Automatic annotation (TrEMBL):
Transmembrane segments: 12-33
Chain segments carrying region Disordered: 40-85
Native source organism of the sequence: Oxalobacter paraformigenes
Keyword check for Cytoplasm: no
PANTHER family assigned to the protein according to its UniProt record, in alphabetical order: CELL DIVISION PROTEIN DEDD-RELATED, CELL DIVISION PROTEIN FTSN
The protein's name in its UniProt record: Cell division protein FtsN
PROSITE patterns documented for this protein: SPOR
């Protein structure tokens, strides 16, 4: 019987041959991808000879209409009573009148969510920062919207609270100023 000879270096040669084969396949695929034209790139969805209408179309509907709620949107938000007639300005009042900033009550809205759980998460984050907030539910054409609001705040306290929230990475919007 013949004795079997051990071959050395077969593993290394197979490994190198596999690497070279893989490299050749990768180069071929890369060349095919870069040289072939992009499908549907030359195709246009619209015909070129479409006449352009010269009339102005109606303005698009407001995309935030659902967020406004059911209140009267036509009533004025602020009425400026600080402009008085010259006769009233000369008389010195006995009591300092409140400035419009002192009469105004504002809320800060930290977010509006379609999912109540997301609104609860935002409310929890605000509670961890030391702010008391509440969730108000509004219905719209597309479903319910859950708003996370802080307040009411009077005067310039809104600005200081808003700055503190911004420092903690929470962007807010001043909403619903109501005259008392």
């Amino acid at each position: 019987m013949a004795t079997l000879k051990k071959r050395k270096g077969g593993t290394l040669a197979g490994f190198i041959a596999g690497l070279i084969t893989g490299l050749v396949i990768a180069v071929v695929v890369a060349l095919m991808v870069t040289k072939t034209p992009i499908p549907f790139a030359g195709r246009k969805d619209k015909p070129e000879n479409v006449p352009v209408s010269s009339t102005v179309s109606a303005p698009a509907s407001d995309p935030n209409q659902a967020l406004y709620g059911k209140g009267d949107t036509n009533r004025p938000v602020f009425t400026d009573n600080s402009v008085n007639s010259p006769a009233e300005q000369t008389a010195a009042p006995l009591v300092q009148p409140l400035t419009p900033e002192d009469k105004t009550v504002c809320y800060l809205q930290a977010g509006a969510f379609r999912n109540k759980k997301e609104a609860e998460n935002m409310r929890g984050n605000l509670a961890l920062l030391g702010f008391e907030s509440h969730i108000s539910e509004a219905s719209s054409n597309t479903g319910n919207i859950y708003r996370v609001r802080l307040g009411p705040y009077k005067g310039n306290t809104v600005n200081s609270v808003q700055n503190r929230l911004k420092q903690n990475g929470i962007n807010t919007t001043v909403t619903r100023p109501v005259k008392q």
